[in-house]
Amino acid sequence: MLLVGNGQVITMDQTQPLIMDGAVLIDGEKIVETGDGQKLREAHPDAEFIDAHGGLIMPGFINTHTHIYSGLARGLAIEGNNPTNFFEILDGTWWAIDRHLTLEGTRASAYATILDCIRNGVTTIFDHHASFCEIPGSLFVIKDAAKELGMRSCLCYEVSERDGEEKCDQSIQENADFARWAAKENDDMIKAMFGGHALFTISDKTFQKMVEANDGLTGFHIHVCEGMNDVYDTMDNYGCLPIERLLYNHILGEKTMLGHCIHVSPSEMDIIKETGTMVCNNPGSNMNNAVGCAPILKMMEKGITVGMGTDAYTHDMLESAKTFILIQRHNAAKPNVAWNETFQMLFENNRAIAAKYFEKPLGILKPGAAADVIVMDYKPFTPFSAENLQGHILFGLEGKNCRTTIINGKVLYKDREFVDIDEDALNAKILVESKKLWGALNHRTY
């Protein structure tokens, strides 16, 4: 057994949101009890004690949309690439990277991403992968890295026609193969979705292939209306709106998640709501790409489940939360909006999205929930209570406050040091692959 104590327990359970000087008792992969720290220590003297050092004990964060394939891009400049619009960003940066990403490059990208997630207290990721250089086996390579490092993951591959029919068909097959494998394994640490890029890179013929290959195994995870490209392409070539096109092609549903949805109309929101489809917002990436502010407040007003991701712009979910409230207030020109929605997305909705795929409850500290627990360093210098937790979280915490990360009952990161993970050895492997990738992109040696 593990006992995480000597801290304030933020449960995210509305029946008891805060336990001052509390503790969390873990047995195997599950939480078995939360409560008074001293009483739990006295009742379980043989449990391994994880000292929170007076900090905050919280559920691990869930990232509902990230991209492992961007893991080797930090500091990269591609010669001659100076994008001035969203398509040029895709074609000149991200598609260029994934066109040169080998299986070993994918593995290194997974290591880099997962290490950063663990450091930032992220315990579950929904990844949307692309490596058109080498597609077959890429999701299995990511799965192996996730299992090796202990990250709870839901994976898919980005189907797209941008590199021709053969590559498109390979990406469909990779999704189908991995989804069948995940269904057979039924491992609560590794799940599958069926990925798709943007609508302007996917024909109705390909959508039909995707639905047939999926055969009801899982939900779809697809980019939608991130830029206006989807809107123009769908209206010009199909005579309808993007969400209508997804409906006609049988993509929507209760296990499907749409990324971004910046340029969707109110009538399209109604379709999303009526089909039970989920949405994930990535505010930092949207601002960085200058593609606009998603109408998330209106979506949530309609009752759509909108979660929060990062699009790999960051691996710090609290950074995304801070960015979300800023962009929504700036867009609305109102300083009193988006507060409740920020926390609903980050904690309640991300948990609801994860529940569509993972069996044990995530994002909450209560008996029976998954033992995904983090400790955040935090010494409040203003009154701290259940009534003002949100203010302390938003303005007092960042991902770098994380000192300990436990996933599935296993301590992976303790007092800012990785446990049973050779970080230096992995960094050396990552550096080798990043130099190969950068060299291939810029035709020179690094």
Architecture overview:
- The chain is an alpha/beta fold and 446 residues long.
- The chain has helices at 37-43, 86-98, 103-119, 138-149, 165-185, 204-214, 229-238, 242-248, 266-275, 283-288, 296-301, 317-332, 339-355, 389-396, 423-442; strands at 2-10, 18-27, 30-36, 48-51, 56-59, 61-66, 122-129, 152-157, 190-192, 194-196, 220-224, 257-260, 278-281, 306-308, 373-376, 402-407, 410-414, 417-418.
- Strands 1, 2, 3, 4, 5, 15, 16, 17 and 18 form a nine-stranded mixed beta sheet that branches.
- Strand 2 (18-27) and strand 3 (30-36) form a beta hairpin.
- Helix 5 (165-185) packs parallel to helix 6, helix 8 packs parallel to helix 9 (266-275) and helix 12 crosses helix 13 (339-355).
- The longest helix has 21 residues, at 165-185.
- The mean pLDDT is 98.
The helix tally amounts to 15
Structural class: alpha/beta
Poorly predicted residue ranges = none
Shape: globular
Radius of gyration: 21 Å
Hey, roughly how much beta strand do the residues contain?
Answer: 15-25%
Total beta-strand segments: 18
Helix content: 40-55%
The whole-number mean of residue pLDDT values reads: 98
Tell me the distance between the termini.
Answer: 47 Å
- What kind of sheet is the major sheet? 9 strands, mixed
